[in-house]
Fold these 2 entries.
Entry 1:
Amino acid sequence: MMLITCPWCGPRAHVEFTYGGDATVARPAAPDAVTAEAWLDHVYLRDNPRGPHDEWWQHTSGCRSWIKVRRDTWTHRVHGSGPPEANLGGDEHR
Amino acid sequence: MNRQTHRTERGGRIDRSAPLAFTFDGVRYEGYRGDTLASALLANGVRLAGRSFKYHRPRGIFAAGGEEPNALVRIGEGARAEPNIKATQVELYDGLTARSQNRWPSLELDVGELGNVASWLLPAGFYYKTFMWPGSWWRFYEHFIRKAAGLGRAPVEPDPDHYDRRYAFCDVLVVGGGPAGLMAALTAARSGARVIIADDAPALGDSLLASTASIDGGDPMGFVSRIGEELASCPNLRVLGRTTAFGYYDDNMIVAVERRADHVPAPPAHCPRQRTWWIRAREVVLATGAIERPLPFEDNDLPGVMLASAARTYALRYGVRLAGRAVVFTNNDSAYEAIEPVLDAGTDVIAVVDAREGGPGGDALALLQRFEIELIPGSVVMRAIGRTVEGVEVRSLSSDGASVGDASRRMPCDFVFVSGGWSPTVHLFSQSRGRLRFDEERAAFVPEEGAPRERGGRERSAGAARGLVRLSECLADGIAAGADAARAAGFEAEAEPPCPAVQEWEDCAPVRALWAVPLPSWRHGKRFVDLQNDVTVADIELAVREGYTSVEHLKRYTTLGMGTDQGRTSNVNGLAVLAATLGAGIPAVGTTTFRPPYSPVALGAVAGREVGIDQTPIRRTPMHDWHAARGASFVTVGPWMRAQCYPHPGESMMDAINREARQVRRSAGIVDVSTLGKIEVRGRDAGEFLHRVYINRIRNLRVGRCRYAFMLREDGFVLDDGTVTRIRDDEYYLTTGTGHAAVVMAHLERYAQIVWPDLDVHLTSVTDQWAGAAVAGPRSRDLLAAACDGADVSDAALPFMGCKDATVAGAPVRIIRMTFSGERAFEVHCPADYGVHVWEALLAAGEPFDVMPYGTEALGVLRIEKGHVVPNELDGRTIPADFGFDRMEKDEDFIGRRSLERFRVGGRKRKTFAGLVSENGDAIPRGGHLVWNPTAPRPMRMFGHVTSSCYSPSLERHIALALIEDAADWKGRVLYAASPLTSSFVPVRITDHVFIDPENRRPKG
Ligand SMILES: [Zn+2]
């Protein structure tokens, strides 16, 4: 059972959290201004990387904060976490 | 009662003053407190303990601990019966009943032993080959195979016991209470770290309880007692006895099961039978010991063949006399340590067959000379003779280990004590993704230390678990590992405990690797590698010939290392035989992956307390007890229990529902709506935030007004419908569907925190803080006027979709005028603690206006009649336009708006909302599909489906709501609602989805 550090509550078992998807994609600020392809990409298309990856998790059974977690999808090792705006060292943001 | 004919006069850690009676296969025996079932059976001279899995060959007790592959028994009777328990791990208690397995009609006479005679029918991969036969044959064979195969039988009755789960945290977890584990725990505890030591035996000590060495000048049992006392006095240390750590999970989460009551006939009151411990440890010491390997020779599975360490343990720890003559067969010095104890207990050791040409080291040699025991070096036991062991055949072994000599010598004996060397118990280490390394010198897989780790795994192995053999080394290693773990966890011991002085054999010779005794080509006897799964050397060789050369394929094809045993005694021999057959090195072949659980875990222990009514929490509204007292029946809605209807005495549920629905339309009714999700939204930008969330315009919502609104997911499908009420400039009050509250809350939090963190908005779930009652019906305003302590609830003061604060019988309430039933209606929300007070006050005030409580069923009827949507319709595949709600969509960005574009540019035709009326008076099947002609050949075209269905007491017909392609074109025509599952095909006429008051006058009037 993974240990995830909530930036507000400290290390907690992952069962306190809810996974929220890929944290490297951001909602376009003006959805009307992007192409249909770009919108499709935003809503549906996700990479499935092996290795360190930024993910959204919500501390649902704790402080309810959405946090960003840099986690290795292969080893499950959590490399870092922070508030949503944090840069956890990944360069795969698009 | 049988006497304990095979018990020594004295000695052993058994309480001879406490005799215990037990039965095995219906025969009564006696043992002592401190016995295991296995030791008690041996003390009674029982040699036959079970039948093997595949060939039903007679098997005896082979080991003394958790590595026992043969003696699997069924313990207890009826609902408490548990199959596949190792007799070596069952603590004897008075009245214990045990039965052998895999035999019919009896253990002595087994029909299935035919499988042995016709064993050529059951080669490796038998099951796979069987599946390859023509499918129609399989039906014929399946019955026979299922009856003959499988381990044990599970009870069919519900489990009468209860189970528990606990979470624990510690700085250092020590798994294993043997020499290394004890010293590691002691050292770590002295540093001040919080320590847990888990051991699967009832008492600490493990191999020390059957050791011939002396420690600090005394016997090892005294040493164990001293350490045990010190551990017990440490406030920062917890000893978990009878606890097996079975799983090593991410980030040092170790899961263990503690057997609280398996050593007594039934758990005492309030005591769980077993408890699962979820232990999060900063650092871990794996002192899991080592398992002695067998030596595969012909018929090495006969009762009487036993591990040398087991023979030593039964003699020293349990005072068992293995009566008769014994031959020791070994490739290492440890087997010699069994000789003196078994001689003392009364076994006549006649010879030692040692595979090593040079024989053992000096200490073991001196022992043989002292007791005048013959040494046969450079030789092997080639075969065991008899039905149980009656003798052995001994031959010389070539120096390359590949063949045996021609000269054969027969020796009569009753036991063969074997030792093929030791395999560290690396299961937990491997589960933590640690890598194993083959140590040629020790002829064993040992944990690779210091290798880069793919996964967490902040643990270290200590003692025999990392291949150490000598006791003094294990004790010192435990101290080092304990200190290292404590240090890594941030604790430094002032003084490590001194390493105890050990007197043990110094002059030892190294092990000679021997994985299987060679078989001359003209012999065909079975050399068992895996005793539990009946896998022989020949099976492995056959699998290799058939191409199963990967160790993982070999395992699945031959079943080597499967079952409850998980390759404890067989793993290393098996893959070494594979390597030899392939002509490859053992490291190149590698090992199979060890997965949790290390040993079988009862499903009850996994479930813990979450069974039956405790499986999920139940939420009750503040008015729950009131409903119950009025005879309401209840229905589960999401996590909630809701009052379904209030049948009068003698009234059927259907009658009650119809009565309640009619009365709402005629006069007034009151329904508990406390289960609605409620969210308070505050902040400077609360309005702007909600404007972006809902498809509706929210910015222009005035204070004191309410709006029915939709929110979508980003993919354009409806997430929830609900209401938004503006309480103050910067405060809104949302309601969501009963089952949707948590999802909607997380959705809003996500957008507030991640997407628009610049907006000043604060979200609070207030579902539990507010109770709610909806008052509906033509007389509802009269009722409210009477209840509201003089507040003005006229159309002018409280118009449709208006909101107003007031009091009811002195209690503060928030009244929102909206309707679900289609009648004039008001939702009265109040602080939850006033729920019953307000509810009763409303009913009392409504008495002159013919009010009655109604439940969710009538509520559902009323909303279907009115054509309102619920999650039946909003099923995650519908968009606002399907219901005509696209008129609410604003021409500005909101969540999901951009995705709606794709539904406008073509693609599949969407189903839209319509009503159905039954043409023949039958109920319309919920979930039924709408077809043109139900007797047409299948597959047939389906035009839509029924989403909600009820009997309408207002229309006095069966009606339904549906989603239909081209609904407008079908209006007035007849389709069939088809439900082949229930064989109902009901002709339905397509109508508008609003059956009642289509002009929508009633709510506003
Ligand atoms: Zn938190």
Entry 2:
Amino acid sequence: MFSWGYFLQQSMNGIILGCIYALLALGMTVVYGILRLINFAHGSLITVGAFFVYFIFFRAGLSLPASVFLVLGFGGLMGLVLDTIAYRKLRGGPEVALLITSLGFYTFVENFMKMVVSPQPYAFKTPPYLSIMYKTQFLTFRSIDVFIIVSSIIIMLIFHLFVKKSKMGIAMRAVAENLEIARLMGIEVNRVISLTFVLGSAIAAFTGFLWGAKYGQISYDMGFLTGVKAFVAVVVGGVGSIPGAMLGGFVLGLAEILSIAFLPTRFAEYRDGIVFAILIVVLLLRPAGIMGVKEEVRV
Amino acid sequence: MKRPELAFVWGGILLFLGVFLASQFLNRYLIHILVLIGIYSIATVSLNLTNGYAGLFSLGHAAFMAIGAYASTLLTFPLPLREAYELPKLPWFLGGPDFVWPFFPALCMGGALASFAALLIGAPVLRLRGHYLSVASLGFVVIVTTLAKTMKGITRGPMGISAIPLYTNIYWTYLWLFITVYVIWRIVHSRFGRAIMALREDETAAQVLGVYPMKYKLFSFVVGAFFAGVAGGLYAHFTKAIRPLEFSFFLTFQIVVMLILGGMGTTAGPIVGVVSLLTLRYALKPLEEHLKIYGMIELIYAVLLIVVMLWKPEGIVGRSPGKKKRPTRVLEGGGSHG
Amino acid sequence: MLKVEGLTVKYGVIPAVVNVSLEVREGQIVTLLGANGAGKTTTLKAVMGVLRPAVGKIFYRGQDITSLSPSLRVRLGIALVPEGRGIFNRLTVEENLLLGAYSRSSREEIVKDLEEIYLLFPRLAERRKQIAGTLSGGEQQMLALGRGLMARPQLMLLDEPSLGLAPLVVRELYTLIEKIRDQGVTILLVEQSALVALGIADYAYVLESGNVKLFGESEVLKSLDEVKRVYLGG
Ligand SMILES: Nc1ncnc2c1ncn2[C@@H]1O[C@H](COP(=O)(O)OP(=O)(O)O)[C@@H](O)[C@H]1O
Ligand SMILES: [Mg+2]
């Protein structure tokens, strides 16, 4: 039953899902690197971003580039607000307080969306120029697929350069390694942390749009599992490592798609279960993840 | 007998009297709420052992409750209906196809299975630092609900099992609540309890003193899961119908909110949290139904959780930890910079 | 240049430093001595603004800086080279140095200073792209000093720079410290071993369990019996 054409086709689907996980994992890994926080609230940005684009792009009829810029800005703003009103106050306290607050924030957004947009899923119609079909000998794909892959690569590249080369990026890594010493250098730690939330949230909101455009449906609770899976990607790739987060995203996307593609159809329902089974296996065999270094104990 | 034990004896007698009076004089609706309060209290008190005293932040309680609910239901399900519902016959080691378990042992068995699952999941994950347990246990909830949806031969899939015999009443519930509180109180006030709290405060220092983290963490996790399983069993035999969806992350979330609102790491906190939030829920329910804004109660829970974390992280009952070790540092939050 | 008045710093309720007053004059090297746990690091952190004093005031060039954030103090020209060096192990040597100049904005000046630091510490120049965690202890101390200098400080606080270094390296380090002083940087030097520190300092304070026990010109302190017995092993 195995055919290379089918394998290739499914691999591409896996890579596209992997792009989405990888983009989300970027934001989660930098936040985890600095605050040791599994930011459940990250998932809410996916939902919010998707609906934001739905309303300004489909309902209000703004152009696609304008919508993309606005959703990035809107996501960033949400990240800033969340950090300023909630997380900042909790820094320096027990790590678990941050975790609980992020859970609370996620639940808040989800139920808020449920009340505002209704519990029914919305159809997210891809615009015509994003649904042009291309057929080659091995692959069939749509322009949205190209859009996702290209925009993901651009974002990852920019993010990578930012963290590696820019002054803020170096400061960000310094804060992640040792917050106290970073403050001695005159780094305004707060500003750096806010910036990581802004960047991560902006990307997550944009990802919500990609998700909707690709899969055609958005709902008030779409962000939850996707967000948690993105953190699974972080763990699989290696916590605190940016290349690790991207790699983890792709590994997870491919594993999820290929396993349902090649297992008998009745296993399709196990899709979400499979992702977490991978997590547990990775934690067992290689707790530091594929590219991770052993996490230092913070005293 | 030592004084605290004596308090438990008196407390038990008073509780029994209270339950007796309640069952005589309250109407069915109020008793219904009291039973739910009891069941949620069992879940929350047991979560307190793991999340409060041992400082492991598990989000897996819904999964353990699901295991307890399904397992006990399969054991007590009446023979004649088994066939009609296409539920599996019990294998020989569970008593054979013609055997129906009595309620109490069935609950224990449900709890034991939940414990076993906790052992399997905890062994790899608890070795790791940080909040991996949160994600892994949440993943476990997803796995369990996925299995409950897909293993149709055992669970009947998404539509769930109904016509479960109504065995849970206010006496059973409060008997189990009493057992749970007592057992966990005993654990916490033993050498073991001091060890897990030492671990929570400072793992490195505790290790130096010869406390081996793994053993203690795993034990707390497994005991917590047992009572969660029992609570699940009581719940199934009270609502008479269970579906996979009921045991999703939001069940865990509710219990977590109850625990934190009441006060993690305190004896009375979890129960205070349950009573306040369930009272609030039943008070608001007519309003929610009237206004048809579903999700309002969850929204309020979420807001309460955030508010508590920001302004009174020790909860209603908890004492403020005071200004312990931490130096009065120029915290990131305050001041002129930023 | 720096004046600390009646400083008390607490960790929770436990005071680590009680009613400490000291003064550092411009162009001098002043040393703060004391046994382990005496409160030296705590004092420096309070001067830097990482710890907030319970009581007391800190003046820098006559300005009350007690409530300023660390980053503003860095901008005013104070730099702390922390105990145990505080190198960012996962960053490269050059990234560490650039972080020292975080609060400055002129790119050209930073690049110029970077080259100067490399002249001063040739061994860092050879290793500029190397991950700092792989440097030897002596090299890490040089990096920490270099990073401190990159802020172009007027007042440098050095917390036990000689800790864990071989005697020969310590001598090299102290020569450097004098050189830095000669370039016009005022230095507050914290040490446990009074011997070397008193050798280059103009003035000295001795802390004991959070209190200033003794203070005076280094020459005078050196000759005191008490100091000889306890700190100079005489
Ligand atoms: N983070 C901290 N929390 C609580 N106590 C501390 C902390 N840091 C230092 N101390 C205590 O404060 C006192 C002074 O410490 P420190 O300033 O580091 O001394 P020194 O640098 O002279 O060795 C010591 O008793 C030490 O135990
Ligand atoms: Mg010190």
